């Protein structure tokens, strides 16, 4: 059977599962899940990104979890880190009007790294995509 092209990820055969395991979660399942706005409007948020960007988002989420663990942010203290939500939030911002320099962000120092995640986590618009407000992450591409 001829492989078909899946625009969101990479060429796959019809009988192959579309799966990218990055760390402990399946990033492709998150990014390919159907999205419907809160008011049941079929307008979906754009999550289309390259394979390399998907891998970088996965690595960023893993680093966020590592830093949180190193700093002692635990569930007993009332902190909860959801890797799926973090990946979806980062992909949402990156694909919907605020492109991120993912590799630069991943390689940055822990303070700047977590500051960008905090901006994304607190300002993401989960209904229509992108960020709320004027504040942009440090590692966002310059506005054109």
- Beta-strand portion reads 5-15%
Task: Note the overall shape.
Answer: globular
Strands, count: 4
**What's the domain count?**
1
Major sheet description: 2 strands, antiparallel
Multimer state: single chain
- The N- to C-terminal Cα distance equals 43 Å
What is the C-alpha radius of gyration, as a whole number of Å?
16 Å
Indicate the structural class: mainly alpha
Strand order of the largest sheet: 1-2
Q: Uncertain regions: pLDDT < 50 for 5+ in a row?
A: 1-23, 35-42
Count of helical regions: 5
The H-and-E topology, N to C, reads as: EEEEHHHHH
- Average pLDDT figure: 76
Question: Helical amount among residues, as a percent range?
Answer: 40-55%
TL;DR of this structure?
The chain has about 140 residues and is mostly helical.
Can you put this structure into words, describing what you see?
The structure is a single chain. With 144 residues, the chain is mostly helical. The chain is 40% helix and 6% strand. The protein contains five helices and four strands. It has a two-stranded antiparallel sheet. Strands 3-4 form a two-stranded antiparallel ribbon. Strand 3 and strand 4 form a beta hairpin. The N terminus is likely disordered.
What are the key terms here?
144 residues; mainly alpha; two-stranded antiparallel sheet; two-stranded antiparallel ribbon
Please describe the topology of this protein.
Layout: E1 4-5, E2 11-12, E3 21-22, E4 25-26, H1 27-32, H2 51-70, H3 83-95, H4 102-106, H5 110-123
Helix pairs in contact: 2-3
